[in-house]
Prior knowledge:
GO terms for molecular function: DNA-binding transcription factor activity; transcription cis-regulatory region binding. By secondary structure, the chain is mainly alpha-helical. The chain is 67% helix and 0% strand.
Amino acid sequence: MEPTTRKPRTQLDRSAWTRAAIEVLAEEGIAGLRVEVLAKRLKVTKGSFYWHFQDRRDLLVAMLDEWKEGRIKDIIKQTRAVPGRELEQIYHVIDVYSTSRSRRGMLIELAVRDWARRDPQAAAIVAEVDEVRLKCARDLFLACGLPLEEASSRCMLLYAYVFGISLMIYDKFEADIPRLKQDIADVIARSGNARYALASPAA
Length: 203
């Protein structure tokens, strides 16, 4: 009789659990995030979870840390500009964060923000990310020669637009959506400052 070959157990590290939990958060919200759901999705036992985490709260803290680190890293990357090309980078930021390319990221972001409405620790993390987000965008406007007050207003307008558009279904509102988005980007980016009032990079 031939010996039975056992399938090797799936080895998961702490990060694998955290990433899977973030995916569940995006799909079902914080209320749908349960250890048994994660274990079933990852095809492992609940015991594997408790090998890496003390409890569900420990997982939630790990999720917030990973989300914060990832968001701040991406924000810095997207807002980093070659000196003299800050205006072009502003258009890039508007485009990247207002297109379908970031759909998954926006679903995660909205889920984290909904979570933050009920959890002070999540709210503190979101506030920290938003501070970095706004400061990096404002630095781009400042580098284009805008005064501090106007740079602050424009970076707020930029993110009000990219977050707002993620909540709307607007495909039938306008026949030429790319033109509409370009016009909005121009409104956000243009200024009377001689150095700053350049032609749109997409023109």
